[in-house]
Amino acid sequence: MRGIDAREALATLREGNRRFVVGQSELAMALEPRQRAALAKGQEPFAVVLGCSDSRVPVEIVFDRAPGDLFVIRVAGNIVAPSLVGSVEFAAEAFGTRLVVVLGHSDCGAVHATVERVERSGDVESPNLGSIVGRIRPVVEEMLRAGAEGDRQALIDAAVRANVRHSADRLRHGSRIIERLMEQDGLLVVGAEYSLETGEVDFFDGLPDAATRVP
Q1: CA-closest candidate to residue 191, choices 203, 179, 201
Q2: Rounded to an integer, what is the distance from CA 15 to the centroid of its chain?
Q3: What is the pLDDT of residues 142-197, one digit of tens each?
Q4: How many other CB atoms are there within 10 angstroms of residue 7's CB atom?
Q5: Parallel, antiparallel, or unpaired for β 70-74 and 99-105?
Q6: Concatenated DSSP letters for 32-81?
Q7: Is 133 exposed, middle or buried (0-12, 13-18, 19+ CB in 10 A)?
Q8: SS3 148
Q9: Where do runs of H (alpha helix) occur along the chain?
Q10: CA 173 – CA 71 distance, rounded (Å)
Q11: What is the pLDDT confidence band of residue 30, given thresholds at 50, 70 and 90?
Q12: Rounded to whole angstroms, how far apart are CA atoms 187 and 92?
């Protein structure tokens, strides 16, 4: 699907998620051996999805897309670190992909862990896990300073979305390549949240023009 612009890519993802939610997935039809043989020659993903590693959020299934359609990057907490930025840059430049989605999900375990660490004022024993928590911590601390500590579930829900926005902003403003493609070639970086309960993906951050809304 090379050459598809960001708006059309976004509409395609929304329609695929609608099929997934209502149980009308078309994915099985796209897994034939001849399709795999064709993909062995190259790929043309129409969207990049930076999502959480949570096993309950299988990106291609959630959007009802076939192999080769999505360039998927998964990391706990859908955080943005240099190697992840580089992966987005690679897809955008190598394949001409013009839509980037930061996909969080409800009740994210990485967000839960970060809230617990902030509340306990403790450090994570593993420096590797700490590198994940450390990228979410500023979001949680800012919310707590704003007085969001009253309702624990409400804090988690709000922190999930704030973390998506934070990651999307880091992509938009943390790479000269991405900034150039946004300014000159229509690249769009949007934020979304997947509901573990309903299966619906809510696109809520960075949407173009009239589609932009505040939850």
Answers
A1: 203
A2: 17
A3: 888 877 666 888 899 999 999 999 999 999 999 999 999 999 999 999 999 999 99
A4: 16
A5: unpaired
A6: -HHHHHHHTT----SEEEEE---TT--HHHHTT--TTSEEEEE-GGG---
A7: buried
A8: coil
A9: 6-21, 33-39, 59-62, 82-95, 109-120, 127-145, 152-173, 176-185
A10: 21
A11: low
A12: 8
Question: Is 132:110 a contact under the CB 8 Å cutoff?
Answer: yes
Determine the Cα–Cα distance for residues 201 and 11; give it in Å rounded to an integer. 12
| pTM beyond 0.85 | yes
* Residue 138 CB neighbours (<10 A): 14
Supply the pLDDT for residue 189.
98
Q: Which residues pair with 74 in a beta bridge?
A: 51
How much is the pLDDT for 70? 97
What b/e string do you get for 140-166 counting C-beta neighbours within 10 Å, with b at 16 or more? beebeeeebeeeeeebbbbbbbbbbbb
CB atoms within 10 A of CB 199: 16
Tell me the two tokens of residue 16. Answer: 């695929």
- CA atoms of 126 and 114, how far apart (whole Å): 13
Backbone phi and psi for residue 187, each to the nearest 5 degrees, phi listed first? -65, 140
Using alpha carbons, list the distances in angstroms from residue 122 to 116, 133, 143, 152, 197. 9, 11, 18, 18, 31
